C-alpha cells in the first residue's frame, strides 16, 4: 500500500516498513520518527547510517550486534528508540522489518 | 587414507556418523567423531523432567552406544580448528588432521551473558531447564515449592527449540492444577518477541492458549539484568517483573571453539550456506544442527532433515560435483499444551506454520496447529523414534527432508 510521507507517495508494508529503500529520504525518516514521538538528533543518525550500511552488506542485525558495534551501547539504543529499538530504527532507516529469529 | 572428522556427537553428529559410515568406503576414508561428554542426552526430555513426567534414565544413554563400528570415537574436548592447516586441536594437545570437517557442536546456554543471572540464587530460585543439571534441580525445587510468582523467561533469540519455554508454561499450568494448587501460582511468560512465537500464524493460536490457561504475557522484554536479592528482572527500557521462581532460557551460544578459531559470528554460530550446509569459512568445512547460523529453527527435527542433504553434499564434494542446494529450512515441532494434548507445527524458510493434516494429506492422523491428544502421543513417540531411528540415521517413514505442501491450507499464508 501507499502512504503519504514528507509529501511523497511511498510504498510501505502492512506494518509501515518501506518496500523500496530507494524511496527513502532523511525527511521521510524524520516523519516516521515523529510518529513515535522521536526527534532525530546526531546520535540517531549515527545509528541509522550504521544499520543501513549493515543492511547493504547483507549482515543480519540484532540488538546484540548493535550493542557490540561501537556506535551505541544497548542501553543508549533503547534511550534513542524506546520500546522496540531494532524494529523502530529499521523502520525509520527505511530497511525491512528485522526477521525475528526462529 | 583420507580423514573425515565430525565435531560433536549429539543429535546431528551422531546421525552424520551413522549415515556417512554407510556411504564412505572404509578402504579410502577414516571417520572420527569427537565429543567431550560420555553421555548422549535426549534434550527434548528436559521439558518433562522438571514435572516428574520423565525419569532421568529416560533421557540419557552412553554416546558410545550410538556410534557405529567403523567410526572412531575420540572422547576429548576440542580446543580449536586450525582452518589453514586443516587440523583440529584437542585440549590434551593432540592434533587431528582432516580432509573434510563437519561441525556439529550444537549450542549451549550462556547465563554469564546476562548481568546478575549467575550468583547465589542460581539453581536456588533462578533455574534453567536447557541442561540436564538445570532440569533435574528444577524438578527437586518444584516437588516442594509452595507457590507464588512463577516467571518463565527467554533472554534473547535465537534459542534452540524456540517453543520449549512456552510448552514449559503450559505444562506448569497443568502441573499445578493436578497438584490442586493452581490458585496459589501466578504464571507470567516474559519474552523479547512481540508475542508468543516467532511466526505470526502460530502466535495467534498460541496467544489464545495462553489466555485460556490464565498465563499473563509480557512481550518485547529485553533483559538487562537479574536482581537476585530483590527477585526481579529488569529490561533495557525500564520494565521490571517480580518473581519468586524464575525459569529462564539464558542466551544460547555456539561453542567457544568457534571464537577461539576465529570463525563464529557474535554468538559463536558458524556462517553457513542455508541451502547446501557448506560453511562460508572454507570449502572443506560443513556445519549442521544448532551450530550453524542458518535462519532455520534449532531443533532435532531440523538436524534430521539437514542430515540427509548434508550426506548427499559431502558425497558430492568428495567427487568434485556441484552441491545440491536443497535444504528448505524444514522444521516440524510438537508443542505440548498440557492436559495430555499437543499442537503440531510444520514450516520452512518461506512458509509459516499452517492448519491441515500431517503426514497424510487430508487424513492425518496428526492435526497441524490444532490441539489434540493424538499430537501429544506423537510427541511421546518422538523419544522412541529419536533413540531408535533418528540418531541412527534411519529414514523416518512418511516424513521427507523437504516440506510437503499437500494437505495443508495455505490460503491465509
Ligand atoms: C528443553 C529442550 C527441548 C527440546 N525439544 C525439542 C523437540 O521437541 N523437538 C526437537 O526436534 N528438538 C527439540 N530440542 C532441540 C534439540 O535437542 C537440539 O536442536 C538438537 O539436539 C541439536 O543437535 P546438535 O547435534 O546440533 O547439538 P547437540 O545435540 O547439543 O550436540 C552437540 C555436541 O557437541 C559436543 N561439544 C560441544 N562443544 C564441544 C567441545 N568443545 N569439545 C567436544 N565436544 C563438544 C557436546 O558435548 C554435544 O554432545 C529441545 C532442546 C531442549 C534444550
TrEMBL record, chain A:
<keyword id="KW-0963">Cytoplasm</keyword>
<feature type="active site" description="Cysteine persulfide intermediate">
    <location>
        <position position="101"/>
    </location>
</feature>
<protein>
    <submittedName>
        <fullName>Sulfur relay protein DsrC</fullName>
    </submittedName>
</protein>
<dbReference type="InterPro" id="IPR042072">
    <property type="entry name" value="DsrC-like_C"/>
</dbReference>
<comment type="similarity">
    <text>Belongs to the DsrC/TusE family.</text>
</comment>
<dbReference type="InterPro" id="IPR007453">
    <property type="entry name" value="DsrC/TusE"/>
</dbReference>
<dbReference type="GO" id="GO:0097163">
    <property type="term" value="F:sulfur carrier activity"/>
</dbReference>
<dbReference type="InterPro" id="IPR025526">
    <property type="entry name" value="DsrC-like_dom_sf"/>
</dbReference>
<dbReference type="Pfam" id="PF04358">
    <property type="entry name" value="DsrC"/>
</dbReference>
<dbReference type="GO" id="GO:0005737">
    <property type="term" value="C:cytoplasm"/>
</dbReference>
<dbReference type="InterPro" id="IPR043163">
    <property type="entry name" value="DsrC-like_N"/>
</dbReference>
<dbReference type="GO" id="GO:0002143">
    <property type="term" value="P:tRNA wobble position uridine thiolation"/>
</dbReference>
From TrEMBL, chain B:
<dbReference type="InterPro" id="IPR023753">
    <property type="entry name" value="FAD/NAD-binding_dom"/>
</dbReference>
<dbReference type="Pfam" id="PF07992">
    <property type="entry name" value="Pyr_redox_2"/>
</dbReference>
<protein>
    <submittedName>
        <fullName>Oxidoreductase</fullName>
    </submittedName>
</protein>
<feature type="domain" description="FAD/NAD(P)-binding">
    <location>
        <begin position="3"/>
        <end position="296"/>
    </location>
</feature>
<dbReference type="InterPro" id="IPR052541">
    <property type="entry name" value="SQRD"/>
</dbReference>
<dbReference type="GO" id="GO:0016491">
    <property type="term" value="F:oxidoreductase activity"/>
</dbReference>
<dbReference type="InterPro" id="IPR036188">
    <property type="entry name" value="FAD/NAD-bd_sf"/>
</dbReference>
Amino acid at each position: 500500500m501507499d502512504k503519504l510521507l514528507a509529501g511523497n507517495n511511498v510504498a510501505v508494508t502492512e506494518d509501515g516498513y518501506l518496500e523500496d529503500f530507494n524511496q527513502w529520504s532523511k525527511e521521510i525518516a524524520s516523519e516516521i520518527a515523529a510518529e513515535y514521538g522521536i526527534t532525530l538528533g546526531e546520535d540517531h543518525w549515527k545509528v541509522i547510517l550504521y544499520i543501513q550500511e549493515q543492511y547493504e552488506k547483507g549482515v543480519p542485525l540484532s540488538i546484540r550486534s548493535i550493542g557490540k558495534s561501537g556506535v551505541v551501547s544497548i542501553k543508549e539504543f533503547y534511550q534513542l528508540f524506546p520500546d522496540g529499538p531494532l524494529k523502530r530504527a529499521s523502520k525509520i532507516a527505511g530497511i525491512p522489518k528485522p526477521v525475528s529469529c526462529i | 587414507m583420507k580423514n573425515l572428522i565430525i565435531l560433536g556427537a549429539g543429535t546431528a553428529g551422531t546421525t552424520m556418523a551413522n549415515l556417512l559410515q554407510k556411504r564412505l568406503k572404509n578402504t579410502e576414508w577414516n571417520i572420527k567423531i569427537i565429543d567431550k561428554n560420555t553421555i548422549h542426552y535426549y534434550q527434548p526430555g528436559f521439558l518433562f523432567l522438571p514435572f516428574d513426567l520423565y525419569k532421568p534414565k529416560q533421557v540419557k544413554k552412553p554416546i558410545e552406544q550410538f556410534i557405529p563400528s567403523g567410526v572412531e570415537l575420540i572422547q576429548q574436548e576440542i580446543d580449536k580448528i586450525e582452518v589453514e592447516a586443516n587440523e583440529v586441536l584437542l585440549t590434551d594437545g593432540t592434533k587431528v588432521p582432516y580432509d573434510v570437517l563437519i561441525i556439529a557442536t550444537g549450542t549451549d546456554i550462556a547465563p554469564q551473558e546476562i548481568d546478575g543471572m549467575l550468583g547465589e540464587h542460581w539453581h536456588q530460585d533462578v533455574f534453567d531447564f536447557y541442561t540436564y543439571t538445570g532440569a533435574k534441580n528444577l524438578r527437586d525445587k518444584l516437588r516442594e515449592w509452595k507457590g507464588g510468582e512463577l516467571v518463565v523467561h527467554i533472554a534473547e533469540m535465537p534459542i534452540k527449540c524456540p517453543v520449549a519455554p512456552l510448552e514449559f508454561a503450559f505444562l506448569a499450568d497443568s502441573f499445578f492444577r493436578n497438584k490442586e494448587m493452581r490458585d496459589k501460582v501466578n504464571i507470567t511468560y516474559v519474552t523479547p518477541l512481540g508475542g508468543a512465537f516467532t511466526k505470526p500464524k502460530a502466535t495467534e493460536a498460541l496467544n489464545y492458549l495462553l489466555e485460556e490457561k490464565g498465563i499473563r504475557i509480557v512481550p518485547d522484554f529485553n533483559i538487562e539484568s537479574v536482581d537476585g536479592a530483590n527477585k526481579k528482572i529488569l529490561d533495557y527500557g525500564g520494565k521490571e517483573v517480580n518473581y519468586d521462581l524464575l525459569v529462564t532460557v539464558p542466551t544460547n551460544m555456539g561453542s567457544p571453539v568457534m571464537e577461539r578459531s576465529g570463525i563464529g559470528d557474535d554468538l559463536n554460530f558458524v556462517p553457513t550456506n542455508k541451502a547446501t550446509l557448506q560453511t562460508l569459512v572454507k570449502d572443506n568445512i560443513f556445519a549442521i544442527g544448532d551450530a550453524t547460523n542458518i535462519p532455520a529453527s534449532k531443533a532435532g527435527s531440523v538436524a534430521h532433515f539437514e542430515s540427509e542433504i548434508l550426506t548427499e553434499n559431502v558425497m558430492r564434494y568428495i567427487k568434485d560435483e556441484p552441491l545440491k542446494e536443497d535444504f528448505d529450512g524444514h522444521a516440524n515441532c510438537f508443542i505440548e499444551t498440557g492436559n495430555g494434548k499437543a499442537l503440531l507445527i510444520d514450516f520452512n524458510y518461506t512458509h509459516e506454520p499452517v492448519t491441515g493434516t500431517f503426514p497424510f494429506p487430508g487424513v492425518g492422523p496428526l492435526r497441524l496447529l490444532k490441539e489434540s491428544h493424538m499430537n501429544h502421543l506423537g510427541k511421546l513417540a518422538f523419544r522412541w523414534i529419536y533413540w531408535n531411528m533418528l540418531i541412527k540415521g534411519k529414514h523416518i517413514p512418511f516424513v521427507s527432508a523437504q516440506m510437503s505442501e499437500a494437505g495443508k491450507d495455505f490460503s491465509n499464508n
